[in-house]
Design goal:
This protein is an alpha/beta fold. It has 15 helices and 19 strands. α6 runs antiparallel to α12, α6 packs across α14 and α10 packs across α11. It binds manganese (II) ion. Manganese (II) ion binds next to loops.
């Protein structure tokens, strides 16, 4: 389930010119429709819509301004079937605000060697038409993804799929709302940052609400709805006997259910895509909301603890990117290590709020003390997580700009954790523990992350390109000296690229 996902389409815009005559142009238009239909048939996260072919400067400008003003258009895929002189694209592309992909393909896979004539050559000339387009994109310093290959190739499809996921998350962020209940955790640096810069860079707003507003919303929920929801938990999870109806601590489960219903109403009324709260501001709440954010995350709502609105937004973005896949995406925190030499692993968890979409079995609902916050024991879902390839992503505020720090990891088996009262996952960092942690720390990556089994580094690379921010990738190819060199280069490049607009 994905709450609040906006409709979106991608536009397939094919460039040509009037030089070739009506018959050729009709063929170009037909081929554009064929490619769009084929890509849609293969299955993409969003539909691709072929647009009228572009033959003149006026049409190029018109299609770009129409893409900007169409609220459902989440990105533009460009392809030059024939030669389309690129000066005619300058005015349009200089105004385009939607994500841009350049598909460098050709309608026919194979050359008809024995029959090829000049007519064929003039109809199928993306080989040089797309180079003319690439020049003007580079000349205009346009950020875009370039995908190369025949449009029916699986690999080409996968490249488009990754970009479509990134574009969809970007589309979701535009006009998106993060609800922050309470402020940032006192004295913590990495979770704080400039909300004005964030809105300028990313398009979403972050608004703070007093916890009392949530408490009032919770109080207004009828008892019968609370009882229904609490009973429903027993069908979904293994509820600890003391929390189950009739159990000695069932009232705590009912309070958690009331928190969930109150939060759903509170966030729903504000059209929020994500939330954050803090254990330092819980006036009027009986327990720190943990179970409720876990349940909301499972429905696609971004969440991060301690007022960390930026990680909340990032969790939401990764949820949207992975929509339709396994769904295994969560807020995460690097919590503690096993430093057995050569087999170092990270135990990732949080004091409560790990998303049950990464659970490997049926989660248990349990209640345990929490040493911070000064409230009653909070209810939470406890589980081990699925194994396999995953990644951690952290979005940090460097003062003059943002950086996305990404580490490819592998979630692995681990011994039982019978006394650990929180959900957890254990991973091995790529390329190795020492390199990954040194690189992460040099890059300034946070302890809070968005963790996902669905999202690939390619999707995040595309996302960073669309957002116009630096991404530092730590994976099997990372070597620390080169990584540090790239950080220094990035410091210069991204400062100049953004100028004084950050
Ligand atoms: Mn935390």
């Amino acid at each position: 389930m994905m709450l609040g996902l906006k409709p979106m389409t991608l536009w397939f815009v094919v460039g040509t010119q009037n030089l070739y005559g009506a018959e050729t142009l009709a063929e170009v238009a037909r081929n554009a429709e064929t490619i769009a239909a084929a890509l849609n048939t293969r299955g993409l996260p969003v539909e691709i819509k072929a647009q009228p072919i572009v033959k003149t400067p006026g049409e190029a400008t018109d299609i770009c301004t129409r893409a900007n003003s169409d609220p459902e258009c989440g990105g533009v895929i460009l392809w030059m079937h024939t030669f389309s002189p690129s000066k005619m694209w300058i005015r349009g592309l200089s105004q385009l605000t939607k994500p841009l992909m350049h598909l460098h393909t050709q309608f026919n896979r194979e050359l008809p060697w024995s029959e090829i004539d000049m007519n064929y050559m003039n109809t199928h000339q993306a080989a040089h038409g797309d180079r003319e387009a690439g020049f003007i994109h580079t000349r205009m310093r346009l950020a875009r993804k370039v995908v190369v290959g025949h449009w029916s190739d699986r690999k080409v499809h996968d490249r488009i799929d990754a970009w479509a996921r990134a574009a969809r998350a970007w589309h979701d962020w535009q006009g998106g709302k993060i609800v922050r209940i309470g402020d940032n955790m006192r004295q913590v640096a990495v979770t704080d940052g400039d909300r004005v810069s964030a809105e300028m860079a990313f398009g979403f707003t972050i608004d703070t609400f007093g916890v009392g507003d949530l408490v009032a919303e919770m109080a207004a929920i009828p008892d019968a709805r609370v009882a229904d929801l609490a009973a429903g938990y027993c069908d979904l999870y293994d509820v600890a006997p003391d929390l189950a109806p009739g159990g000695s601590r069932h009232e705590a489960l009912r309070h958690a259910a009331r928190q969930e219903l109150g939060l759903r109403k509170f966030l729903g009324d504000r059209g929020a895509m994500g939330m954050t709260h803090t254990f330092e501001d819980l006036h009027g709440l009986d327990q720190l909301p943990g179970f409720a954010p876990q349940r909301l995350m499972a429905d696609g709502i971004g969440h991060a603890g301690e007022g960390d609105w930026r990680t909340s937004a990032l969790v939401r973005a990764l949820k949207v990117m992975g929509h339709g896949l396994s769904g295994a995406t969560s807020f995460m925190e690097d919590y503690t290590y096993d430093l057995t030499e050569g087999q170092e692993v990270v135990l990732g968890s949080h004091m409560l709020e790990i998303c049950p979409t990464i659970a490997s079995g049926k989660p248990r609902v349990e209640i345990h003390p929490l040493g911070i916050g000064g409230k009653s024991d909070p209810v939470r879902l406890v589980f081990d997580a699925v194994k396999g390839d995953a990644l951690n992503a952290s979005l940090i505020d460097l003062g003059n700009r943002f950086r996305l720090v990404v580490n490819a990891v592998e979630a692995v088996d681990h011994p039982d954790l019978p006394k650990l009262p929180v959900a957890r996952t254990v991973w091995r960092c790529k390329p190795d523990f020492a390199t990954a942690c040194a690189a992460w720390i040099h890059a300034g990556g946070a302890h809070h992350t968005a963790f996902s089994h669905d999202v690939t580094t390619e999707v995040l690379t595309d996302f960073a390109t669309i957002a116009g921010i630096e991404m530092t990738l730590i994976d099997d190819d990372t070597r620390l000296p080169r990584f540090l060199h790239d950080l220094r280069l990035g410091e210069v490049y991204y400062h100049i690229d953004k100028g004084f607009r950050a």
